[in-house]
Design a protein that fits this description.
The protein is α/β, with parallel strands linked by helices. It has 15 helices and eight strands. The strands form two sheets. A six-stranded parallel beta sheet has the order 3-8-7-6-4-5. Helix 14 (376-386) links the parallel strand 6 and strand 7 (392-396).
Length: 431
């Protein structure tokens, strides 16, 4: 993934069958790489292969996850049935009488709008949007869809689930509209209004004008005369059909504008957010490099020569008074550090990285446990530090060369460091 062409090819490999398949292909791949033994059983290292060649070989051998999407389809069908039958019930609850316009407006326009706004808050603005225990419905869906192995990657899983739920919810309002048009084609429905709290026609007229604002350029709002005629307490026996048409047009437009469009826009926004997060995760993860190194049993053709890596991999003594020491997910180091990143909420880390507190006159060293896996959040932190600091380096610490995984992890960190234009060092205690 050293070049844009290679990055695009790898992205295409994961996205070739759509966004949903891309998600689970990527999560399957990350789970595979997280295992200690990630070498393919039939890996051939004698001939040069591209990254996508190795990925295709992995796909042929791996057992890819197929989520139990039948549950989501069932939800969609249930939403359609509820929307259809609810509209049937509202229109036919009392035969040969006026239908109170507030009932269908509340059920099919205002309630969906309220749910859309709450979903927007939970998906984008809530501080706990990435905390699974604050989303019991999503947790239940994960269990039903048999996605428990992917819970560690909930930062990708939750946006996908939010998108799927909103897509299913759109069908409720769409089905209600379909039900209305089918029934209104073969039956004559008369709408009126009645309210305990709205006691004068002028207030009702003002409210209808406000509700109808988005489409008044296209359709006329219910007039004061119509509102006076169709109030239940003073309704007349015969109302002009053309006048009563204003009521059902208002109902239909309210469902479209307040019920369907907000959910549709929210679903599109959630889909965009999900795809952007997935692309960002693929682009900034070092899992592909780590996987390729494991297949080759040598330095990747990425191309970094092993002698260059050796010369770049300098040893340094810690702590150092000539540098600013930061750490990544290492809060318990034996020497003082200016800031520990990666353990708190990312928004707090990002706020600090964008503040003046992250501007230093000395070189910046970030302490990294070599047994960790490079992440996109770390890459973002490095990028933000590089904007205001002339020298940013990664320091592997503590060093344990006796660990059988150390050499493999060291190679992964070399790739990560080269990709993000930082030098890599090995830290050793003074004395």
């Amino acid at each position: 993934m050293a070049s844009k062409h290679a990055t695009h090819a790898i992205e295409h490999f994961f996205f070739k069958d759509g966004a949903t398949r891309a998600l689970f292909r990527w999560l399957d791949f990350r789970l595979f790489v997280s295992q200690q033994n990630i070498q393919l059983t039939s890996s051939k290292n004698t001939t040069a292969q591209s990254a996508t060649d190795y990925l295709h070989a992995w796909q042929q051998q791996a057992s890819l996850t197929t989520p139990a999407t039948g549950i989501l389809r069932l939800f969609s069908v249930i939403a359609m049935i509820i929307g259809f039958t609810a509209m049937v019930g509202v229109l036919n609850v009392r035969e040969h009488t006026f239908i109170n316009i507030w009932v269908p407006l509340a059920l099919f326009a205002f309630l969906p709008l309220l749910l859309s706004l709450s979903s927007f808050y939970l998906s984008f603005l809530s501080p706990s949007k990435q905390h699974l225990h604050h989303h019991p419905v999503m947790h239940w869906l994960i269990n039903k869809l048999q996605l428990q192995p992917f819970i560690p990657y909930k930062n990708l899983l939750l946006p996908w689930l939010f998108w799927q739920v909103q897509s299913a919810a759109i069908l409720f309002s769409a089905s209600a509209l379909l039900s209305f048009f089918l029934l209104a084609t073969f039956q004559d429905y008369q709408f009126g209004w009645s309210s305990t709290f709205i006691t004068d026609n002028a207030t009702m007229t003002q409210m209808m004008n406000i509700i109808s604002c988005p489409w008044q350029w296209l359709f006329e709002a219910p007039t004061a005369e119509l509102i006076q005629q169709t109030r239940f307490s003073v309704q007349t026996a015969n109302i002009a059909v053309t006048a009563n048409n204003n009521w059902w047009v208002t109902l239909v437009m309210s469902i479209v504008v307040y019920g369907v469009l907000p959910r549709l826009l929210l679903a599109l926004l959630l889909r965009h957010q999900f795809i952007q997060q997935l692309r960002h995760n693929i682009q900034h993860s070092s899992d592909v490099e780590q996987f390729i190194v494991a297949q080759q049993h040598q330095m990747s053709r990425n191309p970094i020569q092993s002698e260059n890596l050796t010369s770049e991999n300098t040893s340094v003594q810690l702590p150092s008074s000539n540098t600013v020491l930061l750490s990544w997910q290492q809060a318990d180091l034996s020497f003082p550090i200016a800031k520990n990143l990666g353990t708190d909420d990312w928004l707090k880390d990002e706020k600090w990285l964008m503040s003046d507190a992250s501007h230093f006159d000395k070189p910046v060293w970030i302490m990294i446990d070599p047994m960790q896996t490079p992440t996109g959040e770390l890459a973002d932190s490095i990028e933000l530090l590089q904007q205001h600091n002339s020298s940013v380096s990664l320091v592997l610490y503590p060093i344990n060369t006796d660990d059988s995984r150390y050499q493999q992890q060291q190679k992964s960190w070399h790739f990560f460091a080269q990709r993000h234009a930082v030098s890599l060092k090995e830290g050793h205690d003074n004395g």
